[in-house]
Design a protein that fits this description.
- The complex is a heterodimer of chains A (113) and B (124).
- Chain A is mainly beta and 113 residues long.
- Chain A contains no helices and 13 strands.
- In chain A, the strands form three sheets. In chain A, strands 2, 6, 7, 8, 11, 12 and 13 form a seven-stranded mixed sheet that branches. A four-stranded antiparallel sheet of chain A has the order 1-3-10-9, with no helix packed on it. In chain A, strands 4-5 form a two-stranded antiparallel ribbon.
- In chain B, strands 2, 4, 5, 6, 9, 10 and 11 form a seven-stranded mixed sheet that branches.
- With 124 residues, chain B is mainly beta.
- Helices cover 0% and strands 49% of the residues of chain B.
- Classes of the chains: A mainly beta (113), B mainly beta (124).
- At the A-B interface, strand 6, strand 7 and strand 12 of A face strand 5 and strand 10 of B.
């Protein structure tokens, strides 16, 4: 099974500042034939189901603000919120979809400093 | 608009059974892999099971293999999860979730639409 490790567990960022969340997979999720990384990011606000933000490691889902961006390849990935807004307070999860079992990272809680 | 509505959760004793349902609307249900994902109270997300468009391919997390059965009825636009031999560690909110990829050919699944979830509590 592919293990997904997120860091940090939580972070506090001032409004308008950058937030960076890391996700590391125990084995590569890069599919060589397609050169695509099978990595997605989700946002979950309190009392709500998760919301898909990014897939293929860096493709934003429709309607997701462009302050959210994903990067990385192979085993190391990053979700960046370029200018934190109050509505971005949430827990963020990465997920690999390279193989079953489909595994989520442990989550990173983002708060306002 | 895509809508997924789960039902069937509740309190059940250890060793008991429960059947969850998910009613889908707003999209062509028969084109999509469908899934169950759970979240224990205060914990992270855990994928539980997936089923292909035809019901012919099913995948489960090891911890529920042999106890849970995922199924679907395309005529009724409905997804199900039969849960037997329930344990305390199965206590969670269970979400129905759709695969992002219409006509997806494999179990490489991104969850693009989620229901609000149904709470399953396993306790004596």
């Amino acid at each position: 099974d592919i293990v997904m490790t997120q860091s940090p567990d939580s972070l506090a960022v001032s409004l308008g500042e950058r937030a960076t969340i890391n996700c590391k997979s125990s084995q590569s999720v890069l599919h060589s034939s397609s050169n695509s990384n099978y990595l997605a990011w989700y946002q979950q606000k309190p009392g709500q189901p998760p919301k898909l933000l990014i897939y293929w490691a860096s493709t934003r889902e429709s309607g997701v603000p462009d302050r959210f961006s994903g990067s990385g390849s192979g085993t190391d990935f990053t979700l960046t919120i370029s200018s934190l807004q109050a509505e971005d307070v949430a827990v963020y999860y990465c997920q690999q979809y390279y193989s079953t079992p489909l595994i989520f990272g442990g989550g990173t809680k983002v708060e306002i400093k | 608009e895509v809508e997924l509505v789960e039902s069937g959760g509740g309190l059940v004793q250890p060793g008991g059974s429960l059947r969850l349902s998910c009613a889908a609307s707003g999209f062509t249900f028969s084109l999509y892999w469908m899934n169950w994902v759970r979240q224990a109270p205060g914990k992270g997300l855990e994928w539980v099971a997936s089923i292909n468009q035809y019901g012919s391919e099913k995948y489960y997390v090891d911890s529920v293999e042999g106890r849970f059965t995922i199924s679907r009825d395309n005529a009724k636009n409905s997804l199900y999860l039969q849960m037997n031999s329930l344990r305390a560690e199965d206590t969670a909110v269970y979400y129905c979730a759709r695969d992002f990829f219409s006509g997806g050919a494999n179990s490489r699944i991104v969850f693009d639409n989620w229901g609000q979830g149904t709470l399953v509590t396993v306790s004596s």
